[in-house]
Amino acid sequence: MRIDLHCHSTASDGTDTPAELVRNAAGAGLDVVALTDHDTTRGYAEAIAALPEGLTLVTGAELSCRIDGVSMHMLAYLFDPEEPALLAERELVRDDRVPRAQGMVAKLNALGVPVTWEQVARIAGEGSVGRPHVATALVELGVVPTVSDAFTADWLADGGRAYVEKHETDPFEAIRLVKGAGGVTVFAHPAASKRGRTVPESAIAEMAAAGLDGIEVDHMDHDEETRARLRGLAKDLNLLVTGSSDYHGSRKTVELGTYTTHPEVYGEITRRATGAFPVPGAGGA
Asked: In whole angstroms, what is the distance from residue 210 CA to residue 216 CA?
């Protein structure tokens, strides 16, 4: 059983539509795929309508959080998308994305980069605009060779020359809100140091005490030594261990199913969730 619990569509910063994502997941031999777009659930309906027979969809989102000045992402699974408190917080984060991206464009212009808001908006389309869309604009202009190369101190990394902060949820509040909506929380790529500063393990321990369910260990931004350390931390804190591709379509080089989650962990996630249930495919259009 192959389970990939972290994937993005055009509802945020992926390049596959939700329908294409589930079809590509089935084509990649996955049995379970999670749709975890940034701070939005807008892709759910399309993904469910297109869900192929034999593939199960886990609905979720990747929530933008910040603790002690450090940005982090919280994967939320199988929550009630209409629960008012969590919905209101997601809308706060989403509403801040446009002025933030416009601020990054302004900073890039001041650095002599001829990027425009119209270019970034075109790249984002109907998706929830974010740094990867600005990074793609830099690739189009030949400023950097790849999207990943835009996430450096020279450009868009946390604290970088063109970085602009946005509203981000306190992770303890995110845990509380997701739990209140019947969902399960997993700290995404907690040791991805090339993205910028990372959250200390002492803070992860505090989150575990506050109800965090798991940490994403097997991820492209973690080397083998880091994965081993995180597995030990998860064992010490009694946290679930997940693995995921963090698939973004053609925006990143990683493929669906490159890293996966053990079936027993997936079963525990579904057991803990009360806000929603995995959706089995029935042969979508």
From this structure: 17
Spatial separation of the C-alpha atoms in residues 137 and 216, rounded to whole Å: 29
Is the confidence at residue 285, as pLDDT, over 80?
A: no
Distance CA 84, CA 103 (A): 29
- Which one, of 243, 206, 188, lies nearest residue 61 by Cα? 188
69's torsion region: left (phi>0), alpha (psi -120 to 50) or beta? Answer: left
**pLDDT per position as a tens digit, 6-48:** 999 999 999 999 999 999 999 999 999 999 999 999 999 999 9
Q: Collapsing DSSP states into helix, strand and coil, what is residue 105?
A: helix
Residues 15, 136: contact at Cβ < 8 Å?
Answer: no
The vertex-161 CA angle with 156 and 163, nearest 5°, equals 45
**Cβ-Cβ contacts under 8 Å for 161 (sequence gap 6 or more):** 107, 111, 153, 154, 155
- Least Cα distance to 42 among 61, 56, 25 occurs for 61
Q: How many CA atoms lie within 13 A of 8 on its CB side?
A: 27
Lookup: tokens for 198: 């990372």
Residue partners of 83: CB distance under 8 A and separation at least 6: 180, 181, 182, 275
CA atoms of 24 and 14, how far apart (whole Å): 13
Say what the pTM is. 0.88
- Give Cα separations from 91 to 15, 84, 94 (angstroms): 22, 10, 5
| Helices 117-124 and 131-140: angle between axes, nearest 10 degrees | 110
Distance separating alpha carbons of residues 268 and 71, to the nearest angstrom: 27
